[in-house]
Amino acid sequence: MSKYKDVYNDIKNRIRDGILKPGEFLDSESELANEYSYSKDTIRKALSILELEGYIQKIKGKNSLILERGYLKNVSLSSLQTSQELNKAENLNIKTNLISLYIIQDDKKLMDIFHATKDNDFYKVVRTRSLDGEKLEYDVSYFDRRIVPFLSKEISQRSIYEYLENELNLKISHSRREIRFRYATSEEKEHMDLKNYEMVVVIETYAYLSNGSLFEYGTISYRPDKFTFSIVAKR
């Protein structure tokens, strides 16, 4: 594990366990560097991630402030995490169910998004995710087969990102996300436990490699009563 992740996980767990409380300040970067025996750059990287995820706020001229934070089913819009990573980090039990996996071609919308031609094709992966026995997410993802030439049901069921990073050695860098609220489609009503809810929260994602190549486009639909969506805004 990277050094900054050691620091990040330790401070995050101390906040979640109530050892470090909202309204208190962390030690200075110099003090934390001495405490963990790591460089200040490593400490700064860990603190930056904690700030992005809403655990702390960096204050110019002062130490970092620990923030109030809701933990229940929170979706951070500023981080790229798989379900397996969330299960481990947040002590959740998210289960993924693969509905379908197939190749599509000659789709004008996808050709425009991926700057592709009629000769190119794409994987379409449809999955649901369950939490506490309820199907709360409906995930439709498209992968450019020029970059991701092979996917299997096993990979799609487990973790596509883990496969891309560990098997294909791709460096996933960042994503652009758009969020909206709309009426549920017939597919979402069929595959999600929406109860009496007629609307869903939808996050549309464009995911990129470190070289700037778009490798995935997709949407995840959420039942609106079960999730909060957070990002830290700075002035």
Automatic annotation (TrEMBL):
<dbReference type="Pfam" id="PF07702">
    <property type="entry name" value="UTRA"/>
</dbReference>
<dbReference type="InterPro" id="IPR036388">
    <property type="entry name" value="WH-like_DNA-bd_sf"/>
</dbReference>
<keyword id="KW-0805">Transcription regulation</keyword>
<dbReference type="InterPro" id="IPR036390">
    <property type="entry name" value="WH_DNA-bd_sf"/>
</dbReference>
<dbReference type="InterPro" id="IPR000524">
    <property type="entry name" value="Tscrpt_reg_HTH_GntR"/>
</dbReference>
<dbReference type="Pfam" id="PF00392">
    <property type="entry name" value="GntR"/>
</dbReference>
<protein>
    <submittedName>
        <fullName>Putative trehalose operon repressor</fullName>
    </submittedName>
</protein>
<dbReference type="InterPro" id="IPR050679">
    <property type="entry name" value="Bact_HTH_transcr_reg"/>
</dbReference>
<feature type="domain" description="HTH gntR-type">
    <location>
        <begin position="1"/>
        <end position="69"/>
    </location>
</feature>
<dbReference type="InterPro" id="IPR011663">
    <property type="entry name" value="UTRA"/>
</dbReference>
<keyword id="KW-0238">DNA-binding</keyword>
<dbReference type="GO" id="GO:0045892">
    <property type="term" value="P:negative regulation of DNA-templated transcription"/>
</dbReference>
<dbReference type="GO" id="GO:0003677">
    <property type="term" value="F:DNA binding"/>
</dbReference>
<dbReference type="InterPro" id="IPR028978">
    <property type="entry name" value="Chorismate_lyase_/UTRA_dom_sf"/>
</dbReference>
<dbReference type="GO" id="GO:0003700">
    <property type="term" value="F:DNA-binding transcription factor activity"/>
</dbReference>
<keyword id="KW-0804">Transcription</keyword>
